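Consider the tokenized backbone below.
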């Protein structure tokens, strides 16, 4: 078991069964959103979604899936903290790409009345973590949410949206299913995630094979998130970034854990296999460039957190341009007078 933030992460929960979406009488797809069998003209088909489903199912079938949950549980708890920061009770909430329920387990029924959890992997839903909130687990693709407009008071998503092919449309769907004055709180991997692994593989492959292929999936830049949320219709936006560093015995242990998390690369342009010599060289490069004093090697996970609200008339709005009654120059004079008054006391 690996160490995260000075604590050993090991939690054992009882499993719960998943519920197919077709049994809930929900709409098939959102209005104006294409069905899973079609593609959006603007979408870049970067990821093999069927392979991602198989990877997540394989990870959830392992004898001890909780062994690899440390990162997703940590980020799930940080999402839950942001929910608690909002002084409101949410009667109906949705988790997009819930995995084994890494957010809901940290919430209570006083904050959320009922939780809908959606994931592409049926095995993850069958091995859902125990929680006190009443939940409905739905097998559905996160890219095609099967809910009606204005359904949820809260939508959350943790470490799932970086695998969707059309992130703008996914955000539009989340906005669509939110009620007015509802809030979306999400987290996804950022561009500097696993930069140590990426650099080591590229250097080793270039030296041994004369060139390199992408082995770590592409990530969204933090500078784009605010624009994407705004374009999807969200307002009162908050975007911040954080880093979590986990130490591993070596590169191969890191790659084993990524597979156990269901976070292996599924980009269409990925290289199927790496030569054994290249892998050994990459592990040596990793250790030489990034080794800690205790002999372990670090892996950096950059996390983008985002909060966006769906518009409602009751929300505070900025004043119209030109409606100010005091100039910045006058404000400066007031500050100077206040400073002089403090000095004279």
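A designed sequence for it:
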């Amino acid at each position: 078991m690996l160490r995260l933030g000075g604590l050993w992460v090991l939690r054992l929960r009882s499993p719960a069964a998943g519920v197919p979406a077709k049994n809930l009488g929900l709409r098939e797809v959102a209005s104006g959103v294409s069905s899973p069998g079609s593609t959006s003209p603007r979408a870049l088909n970067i990821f093999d979604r069927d392979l991602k489903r198989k990877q997540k199912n394989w990870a959830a079938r392992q004898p001890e899936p909780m062994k690899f949950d440390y990162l997703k549980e940590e980020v799930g708890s940080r999402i839950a903290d942001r929910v608690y920061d909002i002084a409101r009770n949410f009667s109906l909430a949705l988790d997009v790409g819930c995995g084994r329920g890494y957010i809901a387990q940290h919430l209570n029924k006083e904050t959320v009345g009922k939780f809908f959890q959606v994931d592409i992997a049926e095995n993850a839903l069958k091995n859902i973590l125990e929680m006190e909130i009443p939940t409905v687990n739905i097998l559905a693709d996160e890219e095609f949410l099967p809910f009606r407009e204005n359904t949820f008071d809260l939508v959350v998503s943790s470490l799932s949206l970086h695998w969707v092919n059309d992130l703008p449309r996914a955000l539009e769907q989340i906005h669509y299913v939110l009620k007015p004055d509802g809030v979306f709180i999400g987290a996804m991997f950022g561009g500097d995630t696993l930069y140590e692994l990426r650099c080591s593989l590229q250097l080793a492959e270039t030296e041994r094979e004369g060139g390199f292929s992408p082995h770590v999936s592409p990530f969204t830049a933090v500078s784009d998130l605010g624009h994407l949320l705004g374009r999807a219709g969200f307002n009162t936006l908050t975007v911040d970034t954080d880093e979590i560093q986990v130490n591993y015995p070596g590169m191969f242990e890191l790659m084993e854990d990524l597979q156990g998390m269901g976070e292996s690369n599924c980009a269409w342009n990925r290289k199927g296999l790496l030569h054994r010599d290249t892998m050994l060289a990459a592990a040596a490069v990793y250790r030489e460039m990034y080794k800690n004093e205790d002999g372990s090697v670090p892996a950096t996970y950059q996390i983008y957190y985002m909060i966006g609200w769906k518009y409602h008339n009751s929300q505070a709005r900025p004043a119209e341009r030109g409606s100010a009654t005091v100039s910045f120059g006058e404000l400066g004079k007031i500050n100077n007078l206040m400073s002089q008054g403090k000095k004279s006391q």
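The chain is about 30% helix and 20% strand.
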